[in-house]
Amino acid sequence: MWDRKVICLFKPWQKYLLQRHQGHLWGEVCMAGEAEGTKKESPLERNAVLAKFRLLYDVRDTDGTLVLGDFVQGRPKKLILSADKLRPFETGLLDCLSRTTSLALREGVPLEEFICCWGTPMEHQADLISGGSVYAHQILAYCSRVMQTLDLPPLQEKPVRMPRDDTESLTHPIPVPGDQLLVYMTLEYSKQDKRILGVYFAMAPERAFTQVMARGMSEAASFALRYGMPLEKLVEEWKGSHFGSEGFTPNPDIPFMRSIVDYAARYIESKFLK
Q1: Is beta strand 60-69 parallel, antiparallel or unpaired with respect to 78-83?
Q2: Looking at domain 167-272, does it have CATH number 1.25.40?
Q3: Per-residue pLDDT tens for 222-245?
Q4: How many CA atoms lie within 13 A of 242 on its CB side?
Q5: Were both Cys, which of 65, 76, 100, 112 would link to 220 (CB 3.0–4.6 Å)?
Q6: Cβ-Cβ contacts under 8 Å for 33 (sequence gap 6 or more)
């Protein structure tokens, strides 16, 4: 039976082990001293928060997990979202969302930004939890609810977010080899110094889950850039991401792409970093 919200707090003397298996993330809890004479190191060095949910998606139930870990001074610096029974393209987007959000947290973006932004209801959003399950387009709102359960200490130094007053935007279509999917990337940059302050993706036609993952990834990247993260770090994180939509492109500057995120990173690098 799945409860309306399942949250487990792992204390420092517990170990949370993560391992990759066929593109999915699986978790195992091991108590210290459970196996006599054996000690295992965890990639999550401090305590972690684990929340399990069931996703009603594409006429099937999908089991998912949200992990918040690598706590520094009481604040998480790593977020991992995983779910089974997804298409490779969807799994890749979910992984990119996790990596981009973790990058933003490491770069000093307060968790409160994600709590506020992801908790904002989308159009036609019904109740967050219904029968112990989460609808596909509400997964970010569920993450926001879980984050709100954390007892976050006050920030020692409040980071400064750059304003978005005097900006321009550039929209570029991303070619998707052998697919009917249309993807557009919009770059928001300052008129004064041409510094990129936002990266946004729009897809059509696509499922609600894919749209939401792209939205969450865009918001995480944009938060990090507006809080002062160098553009090179975002390009390094996205460049080489390999999932779905792989093939040759008509762009002579980017003849081959491994994914839409890889293409976006290479385009930003060619236009703003060279």
Answers
A1: antiparallel
A2: no
A3: 999 999 999 999 999 999 998 877
A4: 3
A5: 100
A6: none
User: Peptide bond preceding 43: is omega within 30 degrees of 0, i.e. cis?
Assistant: no
Q: Is the pLDDT of residue 84 over 50?
A: yes
pLDDT computed for residue 16 by the predictor: 33
Tokens 């610096």 appear where?
Answer: 77
Residue 205 CA to residue 121 CA, distance in Å, equals 21
Record the tokens describing residue 46, joined without a space: 């401090």
DSSP annotation of 249 reads -
Total-model pTM: 0.79
Q: Where are the domains of the chain?
A: 6-148, 167-272
Number of Cβ within a 10 Å radius of residue 161? 15
Distance, CA of 6 to CA of 66 (rounded, Å): 10
How does pLDDT run across 104-153, given as a tens digit for each residue?
999 999 999 999 998 875 543 433 333 346 776 678 888 898 898 888 89
Give me the mean pLDDT over the 263-271 stretch: 94
SS3 state at 148: helix
